[in-house]
């Protein structure tokens, strides 16, 4: 099956995101099912998105849309987010069919587009609102969970994503009459916008905690050890401990789940080399901690910038704000805990909150609880997801492939 999994992963890397979800282009999607023996048992849904963030060939060391295996890694855009898991879903469905597995539940698989672009047609949203019966399930397995490795490649923990931050874009905009570049003006739109962005970059939203994040740090602390492990323990006991939160914030992955974060991602200004800019704008992408509203974040940004010439507006609403975390359902957690104990003895399995956004935001409001389960262990730096030279360890992919196949069989046989 190694050759098939590689082929499935390679096939999914052949087109950039714009070719799959851009205006006027094909909007790809697939729903497949393996009927179960019990017509009264609710189905299991395997969910995955097949679109990716754009990548510029000239910036990459390797062709981002050609799967390359090198030095123990698979390289290519989407290998980490989330083509490896999509390939494992396809592999699992084929193996169950070929082996004649007697699944009690119906097993469904939905591969959709539009997850990576808030303004694109979103397949998961469409299915949940227009074709609900196609994906109806007791619960869904999706991206967002998985394992974390330390810098030496040792597994630290396995997570099941049960909550996620809410993504929201904001536009910062400055406009003025402009003029000839030979007559500089103090209210230059670019300078004003730059000053506002500098204030945003220096601001940290207040630290927050939930039962999920406190439990996450409490169980990870013995695995990490040292000063960072001590900070995790202290934070799990007292989230107001500033020394602990400051230490955790020094790691980008830990900082991402401590509070709301906002970062500039796009910038545009001016219209001619010899003219003062009439307009300057920037996109701020925020990941909002549960319990905070998008409007509260907008008001905070406006207050931090403290300049009425810079207008802050909400743009590109992706979905409704999730109401809360998924329940810690033993039916979901126990199979992962039991299988992980066999494959990675001593590694804790804990619920987690994803700093990113997933298509679970569309399914959970439709009554399909969605959990992040993958069995694939990632590097501490995030494996280059959404960045340059995205990669996944070959061993992690194949360990995850085995894990997902086995755990799906358990779920599919549940009473």
Could you give a short description of this structure?
By secondary structure, the chain is of the alpha/beta class. Helices cover 36% and strands 22% of the residues.
Overview of the structural elements:
The protein is of the alpha/beta class and 415 residues long. It has two domains: 2-165 and 325-413, Aminopeptidase (3-Layer(aba) Sandwich), CATH 3.40.630; 166-315, Alpha-Beta Plaits, CATH 3.30.70. It has helices spanning 2-11, 17-21, 79-99, 123-130, 132-135, 189-202, 211-224, 226-237, 242-249, 252-255, 294-305, 330-343, 360-363, 394-413; strands spanning 30-34, 44-49, 68-70, 73-75, 107-112, 139-142, 146-149, 155-164, 166-175, 179-180, 261-269, 275-276, 279-288, 311-315, 349-354, 370-372, 377-378, 391-393. A five-stranded mixed sheet has the order 1-5-2-6-16. β7 and β8 (155-164) form a beta hairpin. α1 (2-11) packs across α3, α3 packs across α14 (394-413) and α8 packs across α9. The longest helix is centred in the N-terminal third of the chain and has 21 residues, at 79-99. It starts with a helix and ends with a helix.
């Amino acid at each position: 099956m190694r050759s098939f999994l590689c082929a499935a992963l390679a096939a999914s890397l052949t087109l950039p995101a714009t070719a799959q979800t851009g205006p006027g282009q094909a909007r790809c999607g697939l729903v497949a099912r393996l009927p179960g023996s019990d017509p009264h048992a609710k189905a299991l849904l395997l969910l995955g998105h097949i679109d990716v963030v754009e990548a510029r060939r000239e910036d990459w060391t390797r062709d981002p849309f050609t799967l390359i295996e090198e030095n123990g890694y698979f390289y290519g855009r989407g290998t980490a987010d989330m083509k490896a898991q999509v390939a494992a879903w396809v592999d699992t469905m084929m193996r169950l069919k070929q082996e004649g597995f007697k699944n009690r539940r119906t097993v469904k698989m939905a591969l959709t587009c539009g997850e990576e672009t808030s303004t694109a047609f979103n397949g998961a949203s469409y299915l949940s609102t227009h074709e609900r019966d196609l994906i109806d399930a007791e619960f869904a397995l999706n991206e967002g969970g998985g394992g974390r490795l330390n810098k030496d490649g040792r597994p630290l923990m396995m997570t099941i994503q049960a909550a996620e931050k809410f993504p929201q874009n904001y536009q910062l905009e400055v406009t003025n009459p402009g003029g000839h570049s030979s007559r500089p003006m103090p209210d230059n739109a670019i300078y004003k916008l730059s000053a506002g962005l500098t204030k945003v970059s220096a601001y940290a939203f207040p630290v927050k905690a939930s039962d999920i994040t406190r439990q996450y740090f409490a169980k990870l602390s013995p695995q990490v050890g040292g000063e960072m492990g001590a900070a995790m323990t202290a934070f799990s006991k007292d989230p107001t401990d500033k020394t602990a939160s400051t230490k955790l914030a020094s790691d980008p992955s830990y900082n991402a789940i401590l509070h709301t974060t906002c970062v500039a991602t796009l910038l545009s200004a001016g219209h001619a080399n010899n003219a003062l800019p009439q307009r300057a704008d920037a996109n701020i992408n925020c990941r909002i901690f549960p319990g905070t509203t998008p409007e509260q974040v907008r008001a905070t940004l406006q207050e931090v910038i403290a300049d009425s010439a810079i207008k802050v507006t909400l743009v590109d609403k992706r979905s409704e704000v999730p109401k809360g975390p998924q329940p810690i359902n033993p039916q979901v957690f126990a199979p992962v805990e039991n299988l992980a104990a066999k494959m990675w003895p001593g590694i804790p399995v804990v619920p987690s909150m994803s700093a990113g956004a997933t298509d679970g935001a569309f399914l959970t409001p439709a009554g399909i609880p969605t959990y992040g389960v993958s069995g694939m262990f990632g590097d501490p730096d995030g494996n280059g997801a959404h960045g340059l030279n995205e990669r996944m360890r070959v061993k992690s992919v194949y360990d995850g492939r085995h894990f997902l196949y086995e755990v799906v069989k358990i779920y599919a046989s549940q009473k």
